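Batch manifest, entry 17 of 40.
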Amino acid sequence: MTKTNAARILDRLGIKYDLLAYEVDESDLSARAVADKLNQNIDQVFKTLVLRGDKSGIFVCIIPGAEELDLKKSAQLSGNKFAAMIPMKEILEHTGYIRGGCSPIGMKKNYPTFIDESCTLYDFLFVSAGVRGLQLKIAPDDLIKVTECQVGDLLLVQNH
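Output type: structure tokens
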């Protein structure tokens, strides 16, 4: 298993993590597919979303895989009036990563980063290690420390 840039950063900082490999299905890059393949709780498999705010420019949100990002909450938390997901074709240019392999650790720039408060409910989370087919298992506090992210409520409330 090759070390990714994200893993090398964690090594350099002395942060404990595990790398978990899974088989990639190009037709389904969803967090649910990752959780199923790793046999893990979908609530602990977090996805990294890249947005653009009207004031701050690019920022990053990390949320549980089965949930939906509330754009109003993310805009507010990041000091913007308005925020939208960046177009898929811009992900590589801004982050150095591709869709389905976008790690919150080791992006091209240190963008303002926000993580949903539900991360504190768990001893560990899974986030992309920076390539498709590889996840980092990491303690939420360590992820918060390495990404210098702010914890807040980012989730769209679903009316069932």
